[in-house]
Amino acid sequence: MHDWFQTPAGRYLLDWERTRVDATVVDIFGFHALQLGVPDLDGLQANRMPHQWLATEELYAPQDRPVGKAAFLCDFSALPFPANSLDLVLLPHTLEFSADPHATLREVERVLVPEGRVVICGLNPTSLWGLAQRRGHLYRRMGFGRLFLPDAGEFIGYWRLRDWLRLLGFEVEVGEFGCYRPGVTSERWLKRFEWMDKAGERWWPILGAAYFLVAVKRVRGVRLLGPAWKTAPASARKPVSVANRSHDG
To answer: Which of 82, 83, 148, 203 has its CA at 20 to 30 Å from residue 7's CA atom?
Structure first.
């Protein structure tokens, strides 16, 4: 999606997603965070975890990579991390462009620690942008026209994705839609339809072109321990000897 993100619609989408991601990851704490794909969105820049990685399935030019991230190539369905080792995984349009989105999501569940979080950005097929994409496919079969969105990938519906997460033991904490302007290609027309963002949030909230989702990995039987200072004082735990007392008759 790198080239498409340079278009007016692509920059509009990135701005909306960056605002949501930054506001969310700044309050997610831990030690290890991973972003899978789409270096155009530096989703970990606001996060304060000491160890951050960017994994991609294709090479990017150095200037396109986020500064300060350790970048490497890998198969998203076979991440080079042990089980229960990451506190945060960010998936910006990763699943919809993955060869096997189910396997990728299962792998994310494997590497996340209990109570770890996954942050997902996706394109909503039930939207004006989805309609423009379907119309583009129809025109292409007729021998003319072009697609509004990138050709590769399968756009996964919001409710379908929630079902996948639930089956893997995730609990959705945040779900939000955005980008209600129609699928136009010029900056001027995007600005003309700016009013639709506020109207869409109020009148047709689930029809935004994009969705943003945060889910937490729940593991049954796992109990997080509190700080050591919450334990009972030592004096309260010392055994108390009880002496028998004799009574004079």
So the answer is: 203
Does domain 4-216 fall into CATH 3.40.50.2300?
Answer: no
- The domain spans of the chain are 4-216
- pTM (2 decimals)? 0.84
End-to-end CA distance of the chain: 97
Q: Strands of 96-233 (E only): list them.
A: 112-123, 170-178, 210-217
Q: What is the mean pLDDT of residues 59-82?
A: 80
* Exposure string for 112-139, b = 16+ CB within 10 A, e = fewer: bbeebbbbbbbbbbbbbbbbbbeebeee
Largest CA distance in the chain: 115
Give 67 or 249, the one with higher predicted confidence: 67
